[in-house]
Specification:
With about 160 residues, this protein is α+β, with helices and mostly antiparallel strands. It contains 5 helices and 12 strands.
């Protein structure tokens, strides 16, 4: 599914800047973030029915989203190439970067952008993402993930 690039950016900006998705801490001081809500609401804003856990009637957690994308090739195309993620997102496709983790993993959409960023950490050029997490901002995926993520292009 191809979308207008400016519409993708506008939706990602609106969702990422929603005050409800600012990081917070629980009563024990544990950081609570909302990357899964970001991924879900970007898709919903594009009228895509993705990332809803029907059994538990809630938004999936990031690890569940990763598993869902990984196990549903009819809806998602999986790849690991940073340049491909950048190129595909700039053509108007919705692309997510995702990684499983001990607790909940992490997921964020790739932000259509005319330029790549250089990752000193990984030694490659990387796309930028619309991150909701410990910091809500648009920056290189190398700042959103400890290791290179897996990319998933939304097909349907």
């Amino acid at each position: 599914m191809i979308f207008d690039v400016n519409k993708l950016k506008e939706i990602m900006d609106l969702v990422r800047n929603n005050p409800a998705y600012l990081p917070t801490r629980d009563k024990n001081g544990v950081l609570i973030t909302f990357c899964n809500e970001n991924a879900f609401h970007v898709a919903q804003s594009l009228v895509l029915n993705l990332f809803w856990n029907e059994k538990e009637n809630r938004v999936m957690l990031a690890n569940e989203m990763y598993d869902y994308m990984d196990s549903t090739p009819v809806r998602f195309s999986k790849f690991t190439d940073h340049l491909a993620a950048w190129d595909i997102a700039n053509k108007g496709y919705l692309v997510y970067a995702a990684q499983q983790g001990e607790a909940h993993g992490h997921i964020c959409p790739i932000y259509p952008n005319q330029s790549l960023e250089t990752s000193g950490k990984w030694g490659v050029q990387v796309p930028v993402c619309s991150n909701v997490g410990a910091k809500n901002a648009v920056f290189g995926v190398n700042y959103a993930f400890a290791d290179p993520p897996t990319y998933y292009m939304v097909i349907s």
